[in-house]
Amino acid sequence: MATAHPPILFNNARLVDPATGRDGHGSLLVEGAVIKDLDWGAVAGVPEGAEIVDCGGHVLCPGLIDMRAFVGEPGAEHRETLKTASEAAAAGGVTTIVCMPDTNPIIDDPAIVEFVQRRARETAIVNVCPAAALTKGLAGKEMTEFGLLQQAGAIAFTDGARSVTNAQIMRRALTYARDLDALILHHTEDPDLVADGVMNAGERASRLGLAGVPREAEVIMLERDLRLLRLTGGRYHAAMISTADSVDLVERAKDAGLGVTCGVSINHLTLNEFDIGDYRTFFKLAPPLRHEDDRTAMIEALARGTIDVVVSDHNPQDVETKRLPFADAADGAIGLETLLSAGLRLVHNEQVRLPALLMAMTSRPADLLGLPQGRLARGAPADLILLDPDLAYTLDARTLKSRSKNSPFDEARLEGRVLMTYVAGRCVHRYVE
């Protein structure tokens, strides 16, 4: 069967396969939508007429898989659409987005899952996988129809930025998910403890005169969930942890053999509460940016493999919701386009090795979601990025692909540019100076 485009040979590349940890010089051949061959040297038997891409010694690795992105469509297209989110993703090296159900209407019905998939096929240039709501209307009172939503294409179940406070509902959700081998993604913040808090509780919050969010808001919810997981079995993923105490809980649960994994946002790996400065609302997040000790604990946990996944927590907000007093501004920051560049700070600082960082952004989320992407292997989807990890630039919000511009890295100096992004063997982004 003829392919829609000629084979592509990537020559002179630094191949990094996060799934195996292998990192070395080599070549890779793409035919159609899949990786046909790769060699830690030179690919033999290149088809006639193949397009030759000289990688110039730069990193060739799988495209990133972002397990937590809020996209406005449907219902808030003024903030972001599937099209603009996918363009931002491609520019940042993200080839698969898991979009959260916090839309209007909420993704709690099979018809809405199918709508998102159809719109993504029509307008998006990267893969879009909808996560369905855990409870109807994200209200935390009644479970959604997991089986029907899964059949429609929901890749996981979550209430997005909301926590399920009813322990009986969470117990039932974990039980049903276990029987369907479905993955529960949960936002671990007790809303009653969060209350009117807007930043990390502590001396910094007191100095700024802002209400604080105690670390216990996260820890108590996470500990409850882990006890329920022990009761029910199944697979549970703490969407974003941000404290050293949470790391300890996850490590103990893993040692006990529970089916628990966890993620961290790129913001909590690279920023802390002092970055808020004089009430800079682009740094207002949920969970809030923590103390430097907590940030350091997150980095160490990622380096030793306790933290499984790094996410962008892409949450576009327009000027009307961000240009407000800090306490009144909406939570959230965009991050698809800067996920990898910000993460490379840890590599350049020799805190995390490049294959380990990429594993948390590629093969590990692929394994959790049951996706074939995220690895350099014969027959794997040709979702690839060519990365210059040393190319420095200063982020200019005017050049961002995202419709909203609320980036915490605005005007920051970053190192690492995605030169090319391929999805199913097709180039969807090419960096031009």
TrEMBL record:
Residues 289-429 form the Amidohydrolase domain. SUPFAM superfamilies: Composite domain of metallo-dependent hydrolases, Metallo-dependent hydrolases. One of its GO terms (molecular function) is dihydroorotase activity. Residues 57-245 form the Dihydroorotase catalytic domain. It comes from the Bacteria. One of its GO terms (cellular component) is cytoplasm. CDD domains: DHOase_IIa. The keyword NAD does not apply. Keywords: Pyrimidine biosynthesis, Zinc. InterPro entries: Amidohydro_3, DHOase, DHOase/Allantoinase_Hydrolase, DHOase_cat, Metal-dep_hydrolase_composite, Metal_Hydrolase. It holds the Pfam family DHOase. GO terms for biological process: purine nucleobase catabolic process; pyrimidine nucleotide biosynthetic process. This is Dihydroorotase. It comes from Chelatococcus asaccharovorans. The lineage of its organism: Bacteria, Pseudomonadati, Pseudomonadota, Alphaproteobacteria, Hyphomicrobiales.
